[in-house]
Amino acid sequence: MILETFIIAVRSLNSNKLRTLLSMLGIIIGVGAVIAIVSIGTGSQQQITSNISDLGSNLINIDQGWRHRNSSSTEFTLEMAEYIELTSPAVKKVLANLEASGLLIKEEINLRATIVGTEGYYQEINKYYPLIGKFIDKAAVDNASDVIVLGSELATELYGKQNPLGQKIKFNYNDNNFVFTIIGVMEEKGRGITGDLNDQAYIPMSTYMNKLANSNQVSGFIAQANSSKDANEAVEQIEYFLSKYLGDDDQFRIRSQDQILDTISSVTESMSLMLGGIAAISLVVGGIGIMNIMLVSVTERTSEIGIRKALGAKKRDILTQFLIESLCLSGIGGVIGVGIGYLAAYLISNIGGWPFVVNSLSVMIAFTFSLLIGIFFGIYPAMKAAKLAPVDALNYE
């Protein structure tokens, strides 16, 4: 009986193909939009998360607080890096953040850049390695050597496609010129927890302290937790130490990479849900279209309903017939919408350059919702058809 009713429903829909397609259009657009938007949100979230994770491992950035920056206090010193390591078991390594902004000078080219005083472990903590040459090693730090490593963008702007290894370059800072020998060029990298790494140059920490800064004061620290699981504990331990050591929470500010990732993930998930909800509205609009066309269908087929009732069809038979027609409209529209959603997500992910990810749960929810829309908006027309009296239906013109 169900199979026969289904065949009748399909024949009825097939008798007017254009009207059927237009009736399904809202469902098709709604399902496709939900799948595409959720897929795009998930793919872009994965790309952002991956990019941030690639910039370093379990990083924690420690900056001076607003009260510290506006005072002459010299509490942030090079020795504090050792103190933080000793008092924070969850912390693997702490590097002082030594930065100076000045001009890199090559012949007639003056390029503003940030010079970072660091040591060899900087590569590991940021997952950032030389493309050519080498990075700052222990010997360079011990001897306070006048060597420099350029970020990829700085090397391109200063030397183009030439090999800069072994070249001399000047750095003008506080009206003083310092000459460095280029020993390496770093690989291309995105923005790290301390800024755009491609626009920075790197010199030995000891060279920075002895020649540029001439003091042991630093602007902040970069800490690395033992593991991702220990990141939150490491933040708590560092906060506890600094609160006791500095005596004022406004003297420092701590940002962990995991906190940044959590924030970004939360924002992208919320945006995906919001946009997916907006797209789902078109499903409701599609349901209204189905109700409208089913009401028209009931009116057009009143005589048919009367004949069927006269031949013994019961109310539930008529109700089932029109309800199945409504389900066919929403179900077929849902299937087409799933295909269009996959295609749209694939094309947009290729254009945007993020991973193509389709969440199977979003597909199931969108398709199930389309079926529920078909049932909800098909009940009233089906009940109206079922309630028609046989005599009135037969006499209808």
Question: What structural keywords apply?
Answer:
two-stranded antiparallel sheet; single chain; 2 domains; 6-stranded mixed β-barrel; 14 helices; 397 residues; alpha+beta; 58% helix; elongated
Write down the secondary-structure element order. HHEHHEEHEHEHEEEEEHEHEHHHHH
First-to-last CA distance: 29 Å
Total DSSP E strands: 12
Strand order in the sheet with the most strands: 2-3-10-5-7-6
Helix content: 55-70%
Low-pLDDT windows of residues: 69-74
* Mean pLDDT across all amino acids: 80
Task: Name the shape in a single word.
Answer: elongated
What structural category characterises the helix and strand content? Answer: alpha+beta
Number of helical stretches of at least 4 residues: 14
Strand fraction equals 15-25%
Radius of gyration: 34 Å
Main pleated-sheet profile:
6 strands, mixed, barrel
What count of structural domains? 2
Explain what this protein looks like in three dimensions.
- The chain is an alpha+beta fold and 397 residues long.
- It has 2 domains: 2-51 and 263-394, no CATH class; 59-226, no CATH class.
- Helices cover 58% and strands 19% of the residues.
- It has 14 helices and 12 strands.
- It has helices at 2-14, 17-54, 66-69, 79-87, 121-126, 138-142, 152-159, 205-213, 231-246, 257-300, 302-310, 315-352, 360-386, 390-394, and strands spanning 59-64, 91-106, 109-118, 130-133, 147-150, 168-173, 176-186, 191-192, 195-196, 200-204, 220-225, 252-256.
- Strands 2-3-10-5-7-6 form a 6-stranded mixed barrel, surrounded by 4 helices. Strands 8-9 form a two-stranded antiparallel sheet.
- It is elongated.
- The model is unreliable at 69-74 (pLDDT under 50).
